[in-house]
Amino acid sequence: xxxxxxxxxIILFGEHFVVHGAPAIAGGVSSRVLVDVEPSDENRIVTAxxxxxKMSLSGIERIxxxxxxHGRYEVRLTGDLRTxxxxxxxxxxxxxxxxxxADERGLHLTKREINKYAYEGEKAFHGNxxxxxxxxxxxxxxxxxxxxxxxxxxxxxxxELYKPLDLAVTFTGKYSExxxxxxxxxxxxxxxxxxxxxxMDEYTGIAGNARHALExxxxxxxxSLMNANQALLSELGVSDEGNEKVNKMALDEGALGAKLxxxxxxxxxIALGRDKxxxxxxxxxxxNAGFDSFQTKIVKML
Length: 302
What we know:
Elements: E1 2-13, E2 24-39, E3 44-47, H1 53-66, E4 73-79, H2 89-105, H3 111-126, H4 132-139, E5 142-146, E6 155-158, E7 165-171, H5 178-191, H6 193-216, H7 219-236, H8 241-252, E8 257-261, E9 268-272, H9 276-288, E10 292-298
């Protein structure tokens, strides 16, 4: 048997723009995926979580192939990371699976190798993923991420947080189809290259200011920048009615900032609270309105 773990993530800034060369900022959360593997007569996924079996099996096959492993495995998925859109659950699964297979095989992999193998598995779930989810799941902490032409050319640097971020995460009730949203942005760009470049330039300025706000602990500035990023995502057409409704509810409750996180078109939204007590109040409001919502905290890398 082999065991592996990985954490989920929240994208704070840069969804979709990162696919086209802009920097994204993301942070690891405390919720984790746990994977246990043992040899079997066929590949299978065993879990109580809601997963798409076909995609999960394809991810398993891709990872086995890229790692040069010819056996078949029963893969047991547990942990407290929710599997709905925007929290990096598929990437965390892939990273945990790579770690579990390495443990079972007695392999000593570098972080770079783990990240590379997990990225191959991510393709089964998202087609052309940015690479940011598996990078966070592999390394943790808060990073500024830039996508390269190949996985080996992806780059990231850690951000030194001045203080932790208290967030409320709310599921809109609709699962995000990331590949569909990526395609929508690609179409937007092909139909209006000038307009897309203007949005890219505006976002790049937001990302730079956001990093400074994170490093200096300027929570109110960070919240305003989250709102500005959300406005750009709305212009791109990836924020649906559910995203807009949840964000407005959070802002009405006094959130410093609110935006979708992940692919959009549903999935999850995040709201920045003044502290853990405020984020708890936001979660309470969301739950009273019938939404699944929970608190989390982004902290420095362990």
